[in-house]
Amino acid sequence: MPTYRSHLLVCAGTGCVSCGSFALKEALEREVVRRGLQDEILVVATGCNGFCERGPILMVHPEGIFYERLTVDDVPLLVEEHLVKGRPVRRLMYVPPAAAAPVPRMADIEFFKHQRLIVLRNRGRIDPEKIEEYIAYDGYEGAAKALAGMTPEGIVAEIAASGLRGRGGAGFPTGRKWDLCRRQPAVPKYLICNGDEGDPGAFMDRSVLEADPHAVIEGMIIGAKAIGAARGFVYIRDEYPLAVKRVGLALRQARENGLLGKNILGTGFDFDLEIVRGAGAFVSGEETALIASIEGQRAYPRQRPPYPAEHGLWGRPTVINNVETWANVPSIIRRGAAWFAGLGTETSKGTKIFSLVGKINNTGLVEVPMGIRLRDIIFGIGGGIPKGREFKAVQIGGPSGGCIPKDLLDLPIDYESLTQAGAMMGSGGMIVMDEDTCMVDIALYFLRFTQEESCGKCSPCRIGTRQMAEILARITAGEGTLDDVAKLEELASTVKRGALCGLGQTAPNPVLSTLRYFRDEYLAHIVDRACPARVCKNLIAYEIDPAKCVGCLLCLKACPSNAIAGERKKVHVIDQAACIKCGACFNVCPAKVQAVVKHTGEKARALGAGAGGRKDS
Is the pLDDT score of 462 beyond 60? Predict the structure, then answer.
């Protein structure tokens, strides 16, 4: 193998690819060849680096210099200055929020230095399309150990002792699930990797499959030995073409190297995997609906018990875990249960991956120890809220999760604490909201999502989520009544108790959590017809401040409904009857255009201030 003095690691996860990272890689390769440096410098396309909002990303190894938001036009300068003259280009580096100087090394950036990587240990450092690079970083050592030196009972016991819990939803103990399936007398048995990730703002599974597909494959080989399965399926939604491509390539490479198929590593153990492409139905993430989809049926959930570990795919015992859970398994077997159990809290072991999105300075994918405080994620790793806004809440656990308010910023992130707070771990979506977020509108957004994605099989979910969404829509339109609050709580209880599957049972969580922590915002909408956050169109009006307007025409040109009248250098006026409340005028001229809360009395101000909204202008 040739030795290179520098590796140029170009992030080629979906986020960076959408920003042009493949073109950047090609430009780097051309420039390296043009300067005759191809024997000294290697350009490598890696998986997702994690700092998605900063793409395209490049890290120069071994110095660890981190470059962000690069373009093809930056390439000649970067190669000349950094790789030829040895002078890193500071203007292409990351500059933290409210800081003047860049941070050259990736290891010193706040977003990276507080993370603890297990599942993402290979992110940004290996080419996911080359099995040799995965093997070079201890890849398949866990599988070799499990197949050659451990019994199925021993593997299950090791996973159970580690405390690993399912990372896709409710956090069921993985070892217990595997043991239940292992003990079933029926054969054949099956394994499934649930890569059907449909939560708004979530991209954890996609990134792992793109960046380190062999980790998932290795985990499933170990799981297959544990339960006695000879066949498995990796279920990936069709909207993830790069993940499908890289997993398919990884499967072919594993077979070519004797890691899948007959007589794996000469141990006499047979196991193979195939990809199933999901059609994108959110309900397919529910394990029994996913089973139906693989069987070629409509993705409808089934009544449980029996559970899939007893009666699953084609009526046979089946273990289903999500991408992150499978990717944890190789490290546990290789390094031992005690090592993994030493991370996290008493009941929540190891680490958890979150997609950190929304009103946050540092958007991306983070892996942190269980038990870390929300504050440390949002204001440490995440860099706080943009534009000096106030943090208001964070939605954790996807559309079935709950909104956690700023009063609970010191809440530890573990399964039990989140459940007690009215949220859930879920698959790991974390959507941050600032002071300009209307919590009633947020509840409506998530309810509409779950209502539209409901499979319709059971009445509580099919009808209950629609009725709840209709009530929320009335409230945001200024047509709600106090009785609507009681109706929402009654409907939420009915849906939670009566829905067939976990997706329906958790659908009311956004409503219940916002009622729990932001009830005053509901009352402001209902009692005073006011939206304290100035989001709900029927409850606000846009006005131009005549004392500040200089007649620049910006708002007039931006208005799509011709509701603004005025001449250059003269005060403009908004026709309220023609205004469609789109906010275009406010966006182009926030210093002079005001979003005014409409209300009938002083109570709106008090309720709005208590809910974290800004006072009237």
Answer: yes
